[in-house]
Amino acid sequence: ERIRRINTPILHIGRDHDHLQGIFKLAHEWMVEAGKDSTWASFDHPAHGYPFIERGADGFALAGAAFHEAP
Question: 12: which of 20, 22, 40, 55 is 20 to 30 A away, CA to CA?
Answer without folding.
Answer: 55
